[in-house]
């Protein structure tokens, strides 16, 4: 990719989109185009087609999505499936009609079956049923993968898909109800420290294992895959199994993660586990051997990543008040 290549980031204000934008700028790319939701409604097919026809980007990074935790997925299933499918279909089709050079679609590890063998390989996709709580979102993300693969198959396009594990980092959503586990716990520990609470309660036994990837690592991996030559990319993928897992290849228990967040935040009270609450799947770990074969692996440890995240949270705490 030339440094002045015209690159459109859909979703540049989100957790991943913002990190990818930082990564591109740090690597000297100078022709990045963006639009806010107010400026461009990605669910509006005509608006998206007109935007692409006018701007003619060379590369597209599709990071725009409606995302949330278990509560949000359970509360707004219609919005999660409808909005994500509409955004994907509109952006991918407009990319094809305007002859963009390459597209990168960002998915999610929730595409894999709830009982998939661990670590989860790319070829476990569509082998059994999905986790019910986020099924609408997962189906939408699977549709995005299959859109990319189908356009590649029929039209010879170069659309690539990456599936990250659980992400966290600067710019995360710290809403007390709609956030994911790391920002939710970080906020809870921080507020408990401010109040002088004796303990913080964490749902579940703490024994379930999860994998966590800092968003700057995700951005670095995304740029790496976007810039791979076609021969290298195709030699490590298949026509209708082209997505690539992105993760650390290392997991830890929720209890270990919570203890690390507690230490980073500086909360001195007790950590208590509410075993009456569900743990969820006992383990969720991605197989990242395909990505390692291509030549990339993560660099940011969980503790270092949490420290960067907490530093950002402190600086932006007033803006994050609900």
| H and E order | EHEHEHHEHEEHEEEHHEEHEEHH
Shape designation: globular
* Main sheet summary: 6 strands, parallel
Strand order of the largest sheet: 2-1-3-4-5-10
Strand content: 5-15%
* Structure annotation, total helices: 11
Q: Which structural class do you get from the secondary structure elements?
A: alpha/beta
Report the mean per-residue pLDDT as an integer.
94
Radius of gyration from the CA trace? 20 Å
**Which oligomerization state do the chains in this entry correspond to?**
single chain
Low-confidence stretches: none
Helix-residue proportion: 40-55%
Count every beta strand, where a strand is a DSSP E run of 2 or more residues: 13
| N-end to C-end Cα span | 41 Å
Topology record:
Layout: E1 7-10, H1 15-26, E2 32-33, H2 45-55, E3 59-62, H3 70-75, H4 77-97, E4 102-106, H5 135-155, E5 159-164, E6 166-168, H6 181-195, E7 199-203, E8 209-210, E9 212-214, H7 215-227, H8 230-235, E10 244-246, E11 252-253, H9 254-265, E12 270-274, E13 283-284, H10 289-294, H11 302-315
Parallel strand pairs: 1-2, 1-3, 3-4, 4-5, 5-10, 6-9, 7-12, 8-13
Antiparallel strand pairs: 8-11
């Amino acid at each position: 990719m030339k440094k002045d290549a015209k690159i459109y980031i859909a979703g540049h204000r989100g957790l991943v989109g913002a990190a990818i934008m930082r990564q591109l700028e740090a690597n000297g790319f100078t022709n990045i185009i963006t639009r806010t939701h107010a400026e461009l409604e990605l669910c509006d097919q005509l608006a998206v087609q007109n935007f692409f026809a006018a701007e003619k980007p060379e590369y597209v990074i599709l990071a725009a999505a409606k995302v949330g935790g278990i509560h949000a997925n359970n509360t707004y299933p219609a919005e999660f499936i409808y909005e994500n499918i509409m955004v994907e279909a509109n952006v991918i089709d407009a990319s094809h009609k305007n002859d963009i050079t390459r597209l990168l679609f960002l998915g999610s590890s929730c595409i894999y079956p709830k009982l998939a063998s661990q670590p989860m390989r790319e070829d476990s996709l569509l082998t059994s049923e999905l986790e019910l709580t986020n099924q609408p979102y997962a189906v939408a993300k699977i549709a995005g993968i299959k859109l990319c693969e189908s356009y590649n198959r029929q039209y010879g396009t170069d659309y690539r898909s990456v599936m990250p594990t659980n992400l966290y980092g600067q710019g995360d959503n710290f809403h007390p109800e709609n956030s994911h586990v790391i920002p939710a716990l970080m906020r809870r520990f921080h507020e408990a420290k401010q109040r002088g609470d004796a303990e913080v309660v964490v749902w579940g036994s703490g024994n379930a294992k999860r994998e966590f990837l800092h968003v700057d690592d995700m951005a670095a991996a995304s740029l790496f895959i976007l810039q791979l030559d076609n021969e290298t990319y195709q030699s490590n993928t298949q026509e209708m199994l082209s997505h690539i897992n992105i993760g650390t290849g290392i997991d830890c228990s929720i209890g270990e993660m919570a203890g690390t967040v507690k230490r980073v935040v500086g909360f001195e009270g007790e950590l208590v586990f509410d075993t009456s609450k569900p743990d969820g799947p006992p383990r969720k770990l991605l197989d990242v051997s395909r990505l390692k074969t291509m030549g990339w692996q993560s660099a940011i440890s969980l503790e270092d990543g949490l420290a960067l995240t907490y530093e950002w949270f402190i600086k932006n705490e007033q803006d994050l008040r609900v």
